[in-house]
Amino acid sequence: MALRDDLNSYAPQLCRYARALAAGHPAPNETADALVRAVLLRASEAESFLPRPELHLHLYSLLTEWHRETLTGSKLQTGTRVEKENSFAGGPRAAGKLPPSGAARGQLAGALLSLPLEEREALLLVVLEGFSYAQAARILKISQTSFVSRLSRARRALGNVPMAGDAQLPAKRFPSYLRVVK
User: Fold this and answer.
1) What pLDDT score was predicted for residue 96?
2) Residues 71, 111: one domain?
3) Which residue would you say has higher pLDDT here, 166 or 36?
4) Inside any domain, residue 164
5) pTM
6) Residue 75 included in any domain
């Protein structure tokens, strides 16, 4: 398969990841599209230097790095400048579930946007994109231990978000005949 075919097959996944990363930017779709366009252009120009067996990991790594650079103020082809305070990413799809309705959707989106960038990246790579811990750690260029730490912090932060409708659920009670055996 030619490099162009490989890049075309990865483009939809890269777009999904880029849109999840750029969700808190002033112009999220334009920023995400510019990131993907830049990564695919760079990959097609550097055809002889690309690691073919792990091309998708390399593309995700480039996209993540360029997103971080975008946050520090560098400009993309669209001319959109993204400031550091707009470094939020995520969205309801980033949790790997269908978006909840109403207030719960807003709470979940807000919780995702409030995560630090490094935790959001870890969560998106595993939950949204389906990478293994080892692959995601390679994409982020960190150790697997650091990756697991980031991911667990992100999941813990999202687990503490009260969702609308949680108060309506009755507290789970254990039957009285259960005992703790020492």
Assistant:
1) 42
2) no
3) 36
4) no
5) 0.69
6) yes
Mean pLDDT across the chain, nearest whole number?
A: 75
Q: How many domains does the chain have?
A: 2
C-alpha distance from residue 94 to each of 22, 105, 123, 125, 127 (Å): 11, 12, 8, 9, 7
Residue 68 lies in a domain: yes
The candidate with the shortest Cα–Cα distance to 24, out of 96, 106, 82, 95, is: 82
The predicted-structure confidence for 125-179, as pLDDT tens digits, reads as follows 999 899 999 999 999 999 999 999 999 999 998 887 766 555 554 555 555 565 6
Q: Is residue 14 located within the same domain as residue 52? A: yes
User: Domain range holding 107?
Assistant: 103-159
